[in-house]
Design goal:
This protein is an alpha+beta fold and 455 residues long. Among the domains are: 130 residues, Methylamine Dehydrogenase, Chain H (7 Propeller), CATH 2.130.10; 125 residues, Tetratricopeptide repeat domain (Serine Threonine Protein Phosphatase 5, Tetratricopeptide repeat). Helix content is 36%, strand content 16%. The chain contains 15 helices and 15 strands. The strands form 5 sheets. Strands 1-2-3-4 form a 4-stranded antiparallel beta sheet, with no helix packed on it. Strands 5-6-7-8 form a 4-stranded antiparallel beta sheet, with no helix packed on it. A 3-stranded antiparallel beta sheet has the order 9-10-11, with no helix packed on it. Strand 7 and strand 8 form a beta hairpin. Keywords: Repeat, WD repeat. It holds the Pfam family WD40. This is WD and tetratricopeptide repeats protein 1. One of its GO terms (biological process) is negative regulation of fatty acid biosynthetic process.
Length: 455
């Protein structure tokens, strides 16, 4: 469409280049689309306050051109579906709701309808109601997976529980209980973006089963954790109306108290009010430099389909992520810890971590036809990877404890910039007690202090 627009543009001098980027020319309708994880615009001020920059370090299309993969510096890896586009799940609940006709006509605020709006189920409602009422609806092999996930949850192994629930959801996307349980695991793990994924799961569970009590309550909790305080309170009030027997429960009273304390404990400053005036893009700090038509495009942005967690992308600005496999069925990304990560695309489950560099893995490119993967980073070498025979000796570059590696990367991604700098200089954070760079003991009794020692 950019090409067609250029041809139709008025020709000035023969040397002139006409593009839709020129500020005096409006962007043609349909020539540009924005994709962003639904929670990131709201988190942007918080990330900026912590000197954490969000920037896309790499984007690439799937082999069939229907999906877009983005490695988000300072955050996770996201997959966007370009065919079945998803509106953001940041559903607002202001006091004055619009009429149903307004919503049908597309009259919304910030690109989101002005009331709790549950997406329509993808399967026929009669079919969904037959399968989502209880765990007995699951076939035996999926019931076993669900029980394994519940056991992992009981052991507080949140990531393992999430992966097992995801495996079940991949095979039984009509089961509301699996979505509700996975939401609970996300809320316990609390990695970056987990509460937003939990919100998405709660809404999906309620789409499949509007009477899902736990999903409705967790939705209110997610809205609270995501700083949608007024919306959380209204959602909780709606929960009390639908489930009056739960209205005076300890959990309900505690959440009500937390929300009201956050709402009324201190008056908002003028800056806070300005920042919270829109939960989408109008609070963007450089909005004065963004043309109005581009702001409109940003407010029409589409949400992600899948999210991949475990790596760390904060140090270099060229870190790639790519599709891998004969049909792009895997996702690969480098990491600041010197490893590269491999996820199943559809389940988002982490399947392998390999040590690819002594410092940082930046680039990963698959061979176009053979099962080869080339990686490079800070080391002065490019490594080629291919499958090993099952009878071959163990691969010393396989990272066995994937959960610990992923957790360490999440801590690293949220670390103070000084800590990250020390890590990059070859030091390891050890806690309140450690060994100094000169080998001497260091101790500090003050809470929150860190000491370092050479790796």
């Amino acid at each position: 469409m950019i090409h067609n627009y250029r041809k139709s543009a008025l020709q000035g001098t023969s040397a002139a280049v006409h593009t839709f980027c020129e500020r005096q020319k409006p962007i043609p309708d349909g020539a540009g689309q924005y994709y962003v994880a639904g929670h990131l615009p709201v988190k942007l001020p918080d990330y900026n306050n912590r000197l954490r920059i969000l920037v896309a370090t790499y984007v690439t299309f799937s082999p069939d051109g229907t999906e877009l993969l983005v490695n988000m510096g300072g955050e996770q890896v996201y997959l966007f579906d370009l065919t079945f586009k998803q509106r953001p799940y940041t559903f607002l609940l202001p006091k004055k709701c619009q009429t149903s006709s307004d919503i049908q006509n597309g009259k919304t605020t910030n690109g989101v309808s002005n009331r709790l709006h549950l997406p329509l189920p993808t399967t026929h409602i009669d079919f969904a109601e037959r399968f989502c009422s209880s765990s007995a609806d699951l076939p035996p092999h999926l019931e076993k997976i669900k029980q394994q996930a519940n056991d992992a949850f009981a052991r507080q192994q949140w990531t393992q529980a999430i992966q097992l629930y995801s495996l079940g959801i991949h095979q039984a996307s009509w089961n509301a209980m699996l979505y509700g349980n996975r939401a609970a695991a996300y809320m316990k793990r609390k990695w970056d973006g987990d509460h937003y994924d939990a919100l998405r799961d709660c809404l999906k569970a309620l789409t499949l089963n509007p009477g899902h009590l736990k999903a409705h309550f967790r939705l209110a909790r997610c809205l609270f954790e995501l700083k949608y305080l007024a919306e959380a309170l209204e959602c909780l009030d709606d929960f009390k109306g639908k489930f009056p027997e739960q209205a005076n429960s300890s959990a309900c009273n505690a959440l009500d108290k937390d929300i009201k304390a956050a709402l009324y404990s201190k008056p908002e400053s003028a800056e806070d009010k300005k920042a919270n005036s829109s939960v989408r893009f109008h609070s963007f700090s450089r909005k004065e430099s963004i043309p109005e038509d581009e702001l409109v495009l940003r407010e029409r942005s589409f949400d992600y389909k899948h999210r991949y967690c475990g790596h760390c992308n904060t140090t270099t600005d060229i870190k790639e992520a790519n599709f891998f496999g004969s049909k792009g069925q895997y996702i690969v990304s480098g990491s600041d810890d010197g490893s590269f990560f491999i996820w199943e695309k559809e389940t988002t489950n982490l399947v392998r971590i390999l040590q690819g560099d002594e410092s940082i893995v930046n680039c990963l490119q698959p061979h176009p036809s053979y099962c080869f993967l080339a990686t490079s980073g800070i080391d002065p070498v490019v490594r080629l990877w291919n499958p090993r025979p099952e009878t071959d000796s163990e691969n010393g570059r396989v990272v066995e404890d994937m959960d610990s590696a992923a957790q360490a990367n999440q801590r690293r991604m949220n670390a103070d910039p000084l800590e990250v700098m020390l890590l990059n200089m070859g030091y390891r954070i050890t806690g309140l007690r450690g060994v100094g760079p000169d080998g001497s003991d260091e101790e500090d009794s003050s809470e929150g202090q860190v000491q370092c020692r050479p790796s």
